Amino acid sequence: VDAKLSLGENVDTVSTALSFLASLPLELALCNENLNLLDRVLGLAIVSSQVIKRTLGERECSDPRLLKIVRSTRIIVANVLPKTQLFSSDFEATCLVNMTSQLSKSCLDFRFDDGVLSATGNAIGEHFSLCIDYHEKNASMLVNFFTQMGIVVRGAADFDFFSNALLVRSVIRRMNILDRHHSLSKKTPATASSYELCMSFVQETQKHLQSKIFQHIADAGNMLVYDKVAPVALLLASEIYSFIGNHLDTTPATNLLTAEQVEESRENVKKVFELIAVVQGSQHGLGFIEASNYFLSSMSSSPGHFLKCASPSIILESILGALAQSFAIRQESPLLDAAMCALIRNSDLEQTKIITTYVLRGSDCSKRDTSFIIKIFHLLMMCANSQEQHQHMIGECKHFLLISMGLLRDRSCERNR
To answer: How does DSSP assign 96-154, residue by residue?
Structure first.
């Protein structure tokens, strides 16, 4: 049967059925039978991609039904992977061995559709988690995964940054989540630990992509294309330096990074931080603003490392400025709240004074939203954890309380009107 004709006859049925399956809560038990289901769904994903490409050639697919088929197969793969149990005979299954390369290829083929890219990123993140889970039983799975991801990294450096960087970011983001839950220490007697393999991959990613990352962030807003690419570059930078920062905060006497690599990482964080500060005054879309907030929050989750990358006063004032701006435009950011809390908990008395001075006595403090000032007061009271900080806050309480009373009076007047 001609593939094009077959697709035309069945596209509605296939699209509807897969969309329904992808939206269902998956109640599968953890078992190796799911590997067969995974193999079939991946096979369908490959065939559907090939048929769409053969039908459309080099043109972008504009048929929402066809794109729904591609998205749904990726969503189902992401749902099935955590429910798949592997035995020793399953480790060399074709669908697992080739999954990374097949998903990355489809990501490149459908790079114009954000839904496909997002679903593919989730699927490849789940595949990485599966490789971590079984690293002690079969180390070659994770090694093979990183080998194929290395091709994706080089693809981001050489010809298509956007779609490849999204995949790389999905993997390192999952890496950060597992690292925070202490799930990356699995090792085998004859091979490196999964953590060591992850650190090696992060270092290679930084080596190949840091110049591209800097370029896209610096060019943010100059051209229409960068409005889409710059946030991805900034999110990828956040994941890379968050992983390295957490390692340096939790393992100061590391043997995985040389002194030169540690210094290079700090210089890179400083450079990204400065690039964000330079372009903050330009007009940007919501995507870049959210990516900037994510970067500040990610770096602040490793405060010991972050505060060594640039002047603490500059870092604190930058985050306070972003918080003030979010209040001014009535778009508060939980990411900035988290960043501020993390830094307050790890601040000394001098850094706490920088915060209160900025809020109460800064050059433009009279123009700031009163709600913003009260919010910072609340964060200071909630997160300050040293005796010196508490004593300083006691001395500043009367100023904050007067501002609070003024805010309550203004709101009471508004209600009475």
So the answer is: HHTHHHHHHHHHHHTTT-HHHHHHHHHHHHHHHHHHHHTTTT-HHHHHHHHHHHHHHHH
The burial of 340, by beta-carbon neighbours within 10 Å (0-12 exposed, 13-18 middle, 19 or more buried), is given as buried
Other C-beta atoms lying within 10 Å of the C-beta of residue 284: 19
Nearest to 341 by CA among 316, 309, 312, 314: 316
C-alpha–C-alpha distance, residues 384 and 395, integer Å: 14
* Concatenated DSSP letters of 76-104: HHHHHGGGB---GGGTT-HHHHTHHHHHH
Predicted confidence at residue 284, as pLDDT, reads 67
| Dist CA 72 CA 68 (whole Å) | 6
pLDDT one-digit tens code per residue, 41-82: 888 888 777 777 776 655 666 677 778 888 898 998 999 899
Q: Name which of 228, 327, 211 is nearest 275 in CA terms.
A: 211
Give the confidence band of 206 by pLDDT, cuts at 50, 70, 90: very high
Amino acid identity at 163: S
Number of Cβ atoms within 10 Å of the Cβ of 6: 12
pLDDT bracket for residue 339 (50, 70, 90): very high
* pLDDT tens sequence across 367-412: 566 778 888 888 998 998 889 998 988 888 887 777 777 665 555 5
Q: Rounded mean pLDDT of 241-256? A: 89
How are the residues of the chain apportioned to helix, strand and coil, as percentages rounded to the nearest 5? 75, 0, 25
* pTM of the shown model: 0.88
Phi, psi of 27 (to 5 degrees): -110, 25
| Pairs from 397-402 (Cβ < 8 Å, separation ≥ 24) | 399/360, 400/360, 400/373, 400/374
CA angle 113, 114, 116 (to 5 degrees): 70
387 and 414 in contact (C-beta within 8 Å)? no
Instruction: Please give the helix or strand (H or E) that residue 332 lies within, else none.
Output: none
Residue 75 carries which side chain, given as an amino acid letter?
Answer: I
